[in-house]
Amino acid sequence: MAEVNPKAFPLANEGLTKTIFDIIHKSSNYKQLKKGANEVTKTLNRGIAEFVIMAADADPIEILLHLPILCEDKNVPYVFVRSKIALGRSCGVSRCVIACSVTVNENSQLKSAITTLQDEMEKLLL
User: Fold this and answer.
1) Residue 36 burial by CB count (10 A; 0-12/13-18/19+): exposed, middle or buried?
2) What is the residue extent of each domain of the chain?
3) For 17-41, what is the mean pLDDT?
4) With a threshold of 0.70, does the pTM exceed it?
């Protein structure tokens, strides 16, 4: 596994990572998931991102570091997870994924779980 970059802050702990991967997997089934740094940037600019997850072992990490700034401008919670391979698997693809976002859907069955996760992610930023 690649080295976690110290610029990747905040980094999710094991329990939070497991919850994040579970919600990402479910949101993929509900078509609420966007994968890749470019698509995440689009969801943030359009104002439809619920939260953003990034891989701390992306190489080079600089290809992701515009996203935390954009997230803070748009008041969208974000967090880093340790592995891009695990993030890709939870997104339902066989490739590595360095960034993904869950999009807004008011009628989604995941709404309460997403809100709870957003609160947990915001606690890490404090």
Assistant:
1) middle
2) 14-123
3) 96
4) yes
pLDDT attached to residue 1: 58
Please list the alpha-helical segments (H only) found in the chain: 14-29, 37-46, 66-74, 84-90, 111-125
Per-residue pLDDT band at 125 (split at 50, 70, 90): confident
What's the pLDDT score for residue 52? Answer: 97
d(CA 53, CA 102): 9
In this structure, the strands spanning 49-55 and 99-103 are antiparallel
Closest C-alpha to 54, from 97, 115, 93, 15: 97
CATH architecture classification, 14-123: 2-Layer Sandwich (3.30)
Which letter does DSSP use for residue 71 in this model? H
> Which 8-state DSSP code applies to residue 3?
P
In Å, what is the CA distance from 85 to each residue of 56, 62, 93, 120? 11, 18, 10, 23
